[in-house]
Amino acid sequence: MTAAARPATRSPRGRSRSRGWLTALLFLAPFLAVYLVLLVYPLFLGIWISFRDWDLMAGDYGPVGLLNYQDLWTDPVFWRSTRNTLYFALLTVPSMTIIAMLLALAVQGPGRIRAICRSVFFLSSVFSVTVVTLVWQMVLAPDRGLIAPIVQFLGFTPVNYLGSTTWAMPAIVVTTLWWGVGLPMALFLAALGSIPKELYEAAELDHASRWSVFWRITLPSIRHTVILVIVLQIVAQFQIFGQPFLMTQGGPANSTRSLVQYIYETSFRDWLVGYGAAMAMVLFGMMLVFSMLQLWLGRQGDDR
Amino acid sequence: MNATRSGWALWGDRLLLAITVLVAILWFLPVLWVVTMSLKPNSELMRSTWGFIPYPFTLQNYADLVRLATVPRWLTNSLIVAVGMTILVLVVSSLAGYAFARLQFPFKRTIFVLMIAGLMIPEQAVFLPLHQMFADWGIHNTHAALMLPRVAVPIGVFLMMQFFRAVPRELEEAAELDHASRFTIFWKIMLPLSVPALTTLGLFTFIHAWNDFLWPLVSATNANMYTVTVGLASIQGNFAQTQGLGSIMASAVFASLPIVLLFLIFQRFIVAGVAMSAGK
Question: Between A26, A113, A119, which is nearest B21 by CB?
Fold first, then answer.
């Protein structure tokens, strides 16, 4: 019951207000219930488990203090997985941002051809990770793939990309780019669409070149979106799991094992859930910094 | 484009468009290739996987798929989970979104901030404890277990709240004067207005549910309860042998059909939703 809605009626305010609270509670109850039971409680349960042994094989659930976190410090596979995750994000985020922006610039504007291109670039992002990895395992196959004949034509010997410690991660990055470019491209398209036309008209009168229009008008106008895309991508790519899990199983020689895969294996293959939970908390911490940045940027966007 | 632009600029535009089209064709080639392979007999694929025309042509791979019934079962599971999750998210999010947009209640600001903070909790931080909880409740390997964790995601509430806030108050005031109840106002006035927002949120939820991988991988351990995403992962192991390559490709195509159709029909909403979810 808002003050503006009924300024003149002098109803017994106290009663109507408490009835308003009751209504609001009914509206909120379903969400609050699932939110508390399935998100907030598990988060704290996860923190609690990370301070316990929680070894499902040995049936030992006792408290171990900070031991899980101490073990992480000296676990080479944990460090390797963390490094792989960071390396993957480092390769993926800048290239994804740049490709998404280039594609958005290329397909923005009127016309049927551009609309079809927009659909094509977005289409690959509705496939599931299983389908995407299946497709790209085939594309990258050294004996019967799509890349091999091109490489051969150029005079090189095709490599088993997914079996090479050097090439496996870049191959996963390419797969991820193909899969994920649709969303950032759509964000850039929305941003490009909201640049006032007058800015471009003025530049045209000055006979400004395409290049200088991009640097002086387009890029400054969408800078907020550029930062948003980078932050969103960092948060998203830290969660990498399916692509290496299905394409290389983390190999060769641990070179593509991601943090989430190590958490998954520790908890569901070795059944060391306490140790897995400690790792999950570390990943959560890594992501939290960027998620907070993302929220802050979102609020900046609201204020404008 | 524009009459004042020079001939060079015009040719530049055309060249850029031509390059764009070329890139789009290359982009689409893997999809076309997989569809082609799914329509070729396995004996031909043993010989060569090259080519984008399904010749010799066969529908045998798809016939086998339907006959074996595992993939159709996974597809049914995916449909049940995705539709169920979408309905739950829409109900829960629109109710709560309306409360945040229009109703007054104590600690509104605090509850709102706590909800927004929930946006920062990733799936990976809660999937282990959730797995323990669901194991204690004995509900793994049910459709409900596959749906529930994603219903708690606050982004839907946030989107619906943003939408309801933008609706002019006058539309509700008339009904308020008639002493209509809050729920009647919500149901009769606000919901019909929010069909576009509900469509967008629903589509995103559906696509997420369909493509969800980590949670169904740990929750559904019984092959009869696999979603199509997890099921396909389980048969990828056979992929090393060329034997059956055609049927694996057919199952990938089959598994993607519903989501691709949905995309083609509702493209406009999906692209608009991306902009919305960025908080614009």
Answer: A113
Facing residue for B20 by CB, picked from A28, A107, A228: A107
Please answer yes or no on whether B23 and A267 come within 8 Å at the CB atom: no
Parse chain A into domains and list their residue ranges. Answer: 75-303
Is B126 an 8 Å CB contact of chain A?
A: yes
Q: Which residues of A touch B27 (CB under 8 A)?
A: 120-121, 124, 178
Report yes or no on B40 lying in a domain: no
Instruction: Quick: pLDDT tens for A192-221.
Output: 988 888 888 888 888 778 888 899 889 999
In a domain, B205, yes or no: yes
What is the 3 state secondary structure string of chain A?
Answer: CCCCCCCCCCCCHHHHHHHHHHHHHHHHHHHHHHHHHHHHHHHHHHHHHHCECCECCCCECCECCCHHHHHHHCCHHHHHHHHHHHHHHHHHHHHHHHHHHHHHHHHCCCCHHHHHHHHHHHHHHHCCHHHHHHHHHHHHCCCCCCHHHHHHHCCCCCCCHHHCCCCHHHHHHHHHHHHHCHHHHHHHHHHHHCCCHHHHHHHHHCCCCHHHHHHHHHHHHCHHHHHHHHHHHHHHHHCCCHHHHHHCCCCCCCCCCCHHHHHHHHHHCCCEHHHHHHHHHHHHHHHHHHHHHHHHHHHHHHHC
Distance CA A246, CA A132 (A): 10
- How many domains does chain B contain in total? 1
Q: Which residues of B96-118 are buried (b: 16+ CB within 10 A; e: fewer)?
A: bbbbbbbbebeeeeebbeebbeb
Judge whether B230 lies within some domain: yes
Residue B124 lies in a domain: yes
Question: What are the tens digits of pLDDT across the range A63-76?
Answer: 888 899 999 999 99
Check residue B186 and report its DSSP letter. I
User: Which of A43, A134, A263 is opposite residue B248, by nearest beta carbon?
Assistant: A134
CATH number of the domain enclosing B159:
1.10.3720.10
| Buried-state track A268-279, b at ≥16 Cβ within 10 A, e below 16 | beeebbbbbbbb
Domain A75-303 has CATH 3.50.30.10: no
pLDDT at B136: 93
> ipTM greater than 0.85, yes or no?
yes
Q: Which range of residues forms the domain containing residue B164?
A: 69-240
